[in-house]
Every structure is written in structure tokens, then in C-alpha cells.
Amino acid sequence: MPNVWIVPVNFNGTEDTRKCLRSLAGLSTPANVVLVDNASQPDPTGALKSEFRWVHVVRNTENLGWSGGNNTGIRFALERGATHVMLLNNDTTVAPDIVARLLRAFEAHPRFGVIGPVIRYMDEPDAVMTDGVTFNPPGFPGFFQRKVVPERTTDPPAVDDTDIVNGCCMMVRADVFARVGLIDDRFFLIHEEADFCLRVKAAGFACGVLAEPLVWHKGSTAFKRAGKKWQRYYDTRNLALLVRKHRRASGRGLLSAYTTYLRYAYHRYCHEREDSQPDAADAVLEGLIDAATRRTGPYRVRTRWGVPVLRGVFETARRVL
Q1: Does 227 score more than 60 pLDDT?
Q2: Facing residues of 87 across strands?
Q3: What are the two backbone dihedrals, phi and then psi, of residue 180, each rounded to the nearest 5 degrees?
Q4: Domain locations along the chain
Q5: What are the pLDDT digits (tens) for 112-127?
Q6: Correct CATH for 4-94+104-223 of 3.40.50.300, 3.20.20.30, 3.90.550.10, 1.20.58.2050
Q7: Were 77 and a residue from 28, 82, 229, 272 both cysteine, which residue would form a disulfide, CB within 3.0 to 4.6 Å?
Q8: Phi and psi angles of residue 50, each rounded to the nearest 5 degrees, phi first
Q9: How far is CA 114 from CA 23, 27, 199, in A?
Q10: Among candidates 216, 191, 61, 202, which has minimal Cα distance to 128?
Q11: Residue ranges of the alpha helices (H) in the chain?
């Protein structure tokens, strides 16, 4: 009998979390829920425990990011005999049959270790936000190329192979964690689910997208509250770590991958400057510096002497190109 645990992580997004939990209350196939609070202020755990008595609420003493917050929930679930753990962003709502359909997909397709559904926008419920992703394909100008998953409802559920399952909603078999470990805490935020899925594939499991829209995602609310700067910093810094860890996961050579990475960072910087977002542009530069010095984990306030130098190089390139 499957023992499913669902892990939403809350950080200063209690109203979104309430909406998510109300959605989970309507599941057609019951599942256990452990809500992890990442040291939100003010502390919402008492109110959430009172309102959602069927939910286990665990509070971290500091903000551990997406990686650390989910790891707290994963450990909690595995210690209680979970056979499947579903990581779910707190700014989502789900279809009532999501657990049933995912379990049926695992049963019918045992080669898959990670499966997530097609995800749609909450404010545009008929529009696809994410489905499949191919990582670092040769000849592609970026690192994440969409792999379209045609939506269809079949029995058993149709599951298409993908390199990366969106961390907004991914169900993972417990034996996968036993084989590959938990989420890499070095990422903290952004690209950690890509790293996890690529590790899962390297260990011999498949990753897949269930070809049905079962999740609606509000999208990036934590960054909207905290500011675009942090998104740009973690994206730039962690993309280098991801490429370094998985440079053999595609046919693209190392030199080509790093050239693509630097080009990507430059275009991100230019976009933020043109959008009158100097803090976000400088965050790209900080991410580049911390990537080069291999700093990981949460952002640390410190003087990064290379920022003015890089800014000068990029501004000169903007004028010339």
C-alpha cells in the first residue's frame, strides 16, 4: 500500500500556503502532508496547525531555501515510512486526482523514479507553464530547451521522458532518495531540481512528465516579495555549479558549455540594465564572482571587489556590440 507524503515549503507566503492546503484537503486519494516553514516572520505555525489539524507542521530555525526546506520535509516523510514523496510549491493548487494519477503512472511505468505533471498558470488556467525540458543540448543557445508534452488522458497515464521535472511539483519514489541522496543544499535556490533530476538519471532511473495538467502555479511569489535581485544572483551562480556537475550529461563540450554560460550571464546583465534594474544587473555580476570562487549556500553580504571590474567590461561590451 503506497504511503504518500506531500511536502510544501512556506517562507513568508502564508496566504498562498493556505490556498494550497485547502486544495490538498480535496484529494480523491488521501495523502499525508508535512508543511515546512522556513523561519517565516511572523511565525505562522501556530495558526496553521490550528486551521489545518490534519497537516504536520515543522518549522526550521532559519531559512534553508528550497533545497533545505524540502530536505527537512523529505527526511520527516522517509522516517515515517514514505514510499513516495511529492514536493509541491506552496503557491499552487492541484487537481483532486493528482495523487491517484501519479501513483497509477508509477505503477504502470516502473522505470521512472521521478514524475511530475504538466503545470499550468494559475491566472491563465488553460496555458501551459512547464512540461518537458532537455538539458544542455548541442547547438541550442541556452541550457534548458522545452520538450513539448502533448496533453492526453489515457489509462494507464501517459508519461513522456524528460531530463528535468519542474520542482514546482515532482513525485519521487523513496528508493530514489536511498540511491542518490537528497536535494543538494549547495544550491539553496534555483536549479536544484535540475541537479536532482540529472543525478536521478545518472543513477539509472528515468524522469518523466505525466501528460495531464494537474497543477496550477502562481509562480515565483517568493522572488516577487524579496526582489528580482535574488533570482538573478542564484540563477547566475547556480547555473555554473549545475554545468560543472553535469557537463557530461549532453553532447556539448565543456568549452562550449562555459561559453554559453558567459553569454547567458552577459545577456541577463544587459536585460536588467535596459530594464532600469541596476541592483538585479549587479546581482548577475555577484553571481558570476561567487560561481568563479565556488561559493555556495545562501547569499552572504560581503564586498566583492570584482563587481566594478566586471561591470566595466560588460558596459564596454554594451557600447561596442
Answers
A1: no
A2: 7, 170
A3: -110, -10
A4: 4-94+104-223, 227-320
A5: 999 999 999 999 999 9
A6: 3.90.550.10
A7: 82
A8: -70, -40
A9: 22, 20, 11
A10: 216
A11: 14-24, 45-51, 65-79, 98-108, 174-180, 192-202, 221-226, 228-245, 254-274, 278-292, 306-320
